[in-house]
Write a structure and sequence with these properties.
about 375 residues, alpha/beta, 20 helices
Amino acid sequence: MKDLLNKNISFAYNEALELIVSMGMIACEEQMIALAEDYKLETDPLAISFHEEARARLSPHTLRELQFFFEYNFLHKGLDFAFYESICSSMEPQSAEEWMLRLGHSPAERIVAEMVYGVYHDKMDELLQGMDWEVVKKDIPLLLEIVKKTRPQKEVAEAHAPLLECLAHPEETKVRCIQLIQQFYHDAFSLWKDRLRVESERAAIRYEESFHANPERFIRDHTGTEPTTYDIPTIFHISLMAQVGNDHLVFYTGTSWIGWVIFGIHNDRVFGPAADREKTELFLKAFSDKRRLDILLLLRERPHYGQELAIKLSITPSAVNYHANFLFFLNLLEMKRVEHRMYYHLDIEKLRELLAVTTRVMLDEDY
């Protein structure tokens, strides 16, 4: 397994990816602040400075366009999925300018079709009704008709009308996307890109050293996934703007599968060893919501994938993702892939450890 991980996993800074992550962070700023409070995380001062300067420099029109394409639910890709697909379907890191030029050569129909996938990726069966996505995504009039008839998950319900607008006007949508990205790059990102690269590459050295010291432990401790998940070439992009978290993106290039992981620069604050008191506070907070306890109890019985949990709990897959993050931050869960599904697995031993730590902290017992 060590040899396989060393072969498949690499670390590389992808400026184009950081550009799109930063656009999403600005558009979803209120959501990110709320998530940071929930997870007891302090926002990086550098990220705060970037946010403040970007908002001061961007025009009202650019901010409205940013919200149109990005502001729906940060944990559920939407219209912005088209940009991630365009970037991450290549194994080679790209500068922002290189990628913007490449996007300019992409067919408008492909861009809007990938927007549909971003909004409906967790309702594709209902959307397609047995039709082949590879065929349907090339037929924009058909896509428009079936999107009209199918409501997306409630987290991205507000993306429905903008998506219909994009499908009705593909060429105009492409022009708007490119103008928005170029304007954001010129007014905000270009002024910070060198510093963001330096900070991310500095952190990448630290994480890469930790990975090579013990690949399997690194994957389990810092990503919450089973090492066997990484059976395809995967590049870790260390993202200052993402702060924490692991966004695992997998794409088929036409000849092979490739993966990118948007890896938060401060993941070691959350996924590495933490103070017992902080663990206890987050452990108790994690179960202040009945749905998180329900998830734990279901996973105690057997592993489940996201849609299964959503159906059993009568919530959406994005809500499952949100609640599961509390358990990930406590290292209670890990993900394992079976074919193309990612299953949540409960670590019973870790649960016992956290219960023991909580008992010691609450009762002020000696170690």
